[in-house]
Amino acid sequence: MLVARAGKGPAGADGGPKRTPVAGATFCAGAQTLADIRAIRAQHGLSPRKALGQNFLLDHNLIRKLVDASGVGAGDVVLEVGPGTGTLTEELLSRGCRVIACELDHGLARMLRERLASPTSGRFTLIEGDCLEGKHALNEELTRTLREMTGESAGESVGAGGGGRGFRLVANLPYGAASPLMTTLLASWASCRSMHVTIQREVADRLLAKPGTDEYGTLGIIAQAAAEVSLVATLPPECFWPRPDVTSAMVSIVRRATPLTDDLPRLAACCQKVFGQRRKQIGSVLGRGFAFPAGIGASQRAEQLSVEQLIELSRVEGSA
Predict the structure, then answer these.
(1) Three-state SS for 168?
(2) In terms of C-beta density within 10 A (0-12 exposed, 13-18 middle, 19 or more buried), how is residue 50 classed?
(3) What is the model's pLDDT at position 11?
(4) Are the beta carbons of 207 and 220 closer than 8 angstroms?
(5) 319 Cβ contact list (under 8 Å, min separation 6)
């Protein structure tokens, strides 16, 4: 499901989003057809919410393609944001994954609890609410759950790649959450070992962008510094119901064993600064008195610099 973020979910006992661990028997997935999705929603009195941009991926071959590309299997911890009616969730559970799903739509969250209440062997945890707390951090309940299930924390271990079991993001991502969520996980969560996601094609283009192009910016630079990025598939609008107005893409983002920088948050902050005024010369953004690294001139624009040059720039800018 591709859904734009908006607002917060209902509060749990501690004031944060609702968290529901669900237990039961062995689970077997069954592909959800368009008729199935319509029936599930009708049964629960739900309809696609245009305000949230809800579009449901119909082709189960593509769902399997995404999960196959991720390589996840029995015992792996998987984060899914925007599970919708649960068709991708069911595929992940059928492969023995431990799924943490985060759903903003309260009606869909209620339906997921009922639908997956008995058949998941305690491998399904549902968090109802926004996956993000602002633009640069996961919500508190999701953060706690990930730390509990992986034994890792955010931020400090990014350069080392993390030392615990880690988790993977496998999701048909909400359009509005895709860029800030991926940037946050790449820059601050070394325990996120990989991301295999369906997103807008224009966001995929930004992830893969090269210097000198309009698509080149913070998201792609952080992704390329931290991971190997590749295109899995391009999805036309007719793969979804209701049909979106844009083309979508599946991408693979696999974290490097050794990232190009040991300070991804600093790189992210520097990129956000210089690309925030991308048409200006970087000397105007950083100040003419700034001591630029060798090979970088004050008259250049951010989009002209390679990932490696921006890493060097971030080291100097961060210590200035």
Answers:
(1) strand
(2) exposed
(3) 39
(4) yes
(5) none
Query: Over the chain, what is the mean pLDDT?
Result: 86
Superfamily of domain 264-319: rRNA adenine dimethylase, C-terminal domain (1.10.8.100)
What burial letters (b/e) apply to 106-120, b meaning 16+ CB within 10 Å? eebbbbbbebbeebb
DSSP state, 192?
E
The more confident residue out of 257 and 41 is 257
Q: Which of 73, 85, 172, 183 is nearest to 123 (CA)?
A: 73
Query: What contacts 4, CB < 8 A, 6 or more positions away?
Result: 51, 52, 53, 174, 175, 176, 177
Do 18-255 and 264-319 share a fold?
no
The domain limits of the chain are 18-255, 264-319
Q: Tell me if residue 239 falls in helix, strand or coil.
A: helix
Query: How open is the CA angle 307-171-265, to the nearest 5 degrees?
Result: 30
List, for residues 202-212, the tens digit of each pLDDT value: 999 999 999 99
Instruction: Report pTM.
Output: 0.86
Q: Match domain 18-255 to its CATH number in 3.40.50.300, 3.40.50.10710, 3.40.50.150, 1.10.357.10.
A: 3.40.50.150
Residue with tokens 């060798």: 294
pLDDT digits (tens, 9 = 90+) for 171-203: 999 888 899 999 999 999 999 999 999 999 999
Give CA–CA dist 288/280, Å, rounded: 13
Look-up of token digits 């899914």: 80
DSSP strand pairing (18-22 vs 124-128): antiparallel
What is the pLDDT at residue 9?
35
Residue 152 backbone phi and psi in degrees, to 5: -125, 165
Q: Comparing C-alpha atoms, which of 50, 38, 41, 55 is closest to residue 2?
A: 55
Length of the chain: 320
CB atoms closer than 10 angstroms to residue 51: 9
Does the pLDDT at position 159 exceed 50? no
